[in-house]
């Protein structure tokens, strides 16, 4: 197991870096997109709610791999060429944004309705109240579930291996097929993932306990 | 239009539907097995048997925090090194069950924690043993609270079966790839069709969950 690591650490580290990079990019964009749709789901306009709801249900109920493969094989055929890394990251972003939207919406709805009423009766517009009163409280509530979404995102980024995204899983698999040492290589890859996900997971559990 | 009629021939659609059958078969077997194992592991983790629960808990945490794809690879490509060789079908089911049991164990544990401790105290005060109280009083209530996260996990499982395409399980995505392998113009129609099939199954399940939640919750 140690020899797999010492002989190939630059390959594995490149993969680790790409996994982290893809996950962070996808996290940032899916937070923005997800929050936008979450707000749309709570506004008074029925059209906005229907659009947001449709978006969320579509991307929640289709496998991430199907979305990713769509961007990798179909989009280049009709629109523009796309690297595996880009296709994977776009797929991850769309898929995760629908879960983040649901999480943030639950957070917004968990904020006491009196907060909005109070802000409005103090002369704030709907959007001012949303921006300064509701969202800050909502985000504090949803930090642990958002953290869990980030853990899922890191794990899910392994779909990049399907589209030659040069992530940790892809590099690990390439090593495994080159050296035939599948057993030890996959163990090492697993340790790399755990370095990211396990501390995050324990920290989120700690935060959850503190919030309750 | 002609591309669509060429792509969606009866033979191709039948081929895809058989794939959907494989997807559902693998999902259903994995759901049943991982539910039973997850329930057991969740209870073990909750009750706190000295050392044993802590070790089980740690293993659950390790598995939960690994990508399912890695577990699938490991089951199909690494385990044969130790002499355990499985068909794509059993390897897919084995990997899904290992991963999902760990995910479900965590849901079960939180479900049990969410039941009012007074329920256990009341049951014990009425003469039930700890395990009687757990089985007849705590678990039924915990299961009701668990319906929404359980069903989302089952939906995830159905979607995750698509990963098994990498170990040539002849499920939906794998068959779509075979069809558009004949003609790349079928790519878009194929991805559209399988997306619709996955969507119908998963969305229907989420609607059932919502109704159950309203009825029992």
Description:
The complex is a heterodimer of chains A (212) and B (217). Chain A has one domain (19-168): MetI-like fold, CATH 1.10.3720. Chain A has helices spanning 2-42, 46-60, 64-78, 84-110, 113-121, 126-156, 168-179, 182-211. Chain A contains eight helices and no strands. By secondary structure, chain A is mainly α. Chain B has a single domain (2-216), classed as Orthogonal Bundle (MetI-like fold). Chain B is built from nine helices and no strands. In chain B, helix 2 (10-47) crosses helix 5 (88-113), helix 2 runs antiparallel to helix 8 (172-182) and helix 7 packs antiparallel against helix 9. Chain B is elongated. The N and C termini of chain B lie far apart (48 Å). The mean pLDDT of chain B is 94. The chains are: A mainly alpha (212), B mainly alpha (217). At the A-B interface, helix 2, helix 3, helix 6, helix 7 and helix 8 of A face helix 3, helix 4, helix 7 and helix 9 of B. Chain A: Keywords: Cell membrane, Membrane, Transmembrane, Transmembrane helix, Transport. Chain A: This is Glutamine ABC transporter permease. Chain A: Residues 16-204 form the ABC transmembrane type-1 domain.
SSE arrangement:
The complex is a heterodimer of chains A (212) and B (217).
Chain A: H1 2-42, H2 46-60, H3 64-78, H4 84-110, H5 113-121, H6 126-156, H7 168-179, H8 182-211
Chain B: H1 2-7, H2 10-47, H3 52-64, H4 68-78, H5 88-113, H6 117-125, H7 130-160, H8 172-182, H9 187-216
Domain ABC transmembrane type-1 (chain B): 20-209
Transmembrane segments (chain B): 20-44, 51-77, 89-108, 129-147, 190-209
Subcellular location (chain B): Cell membrane
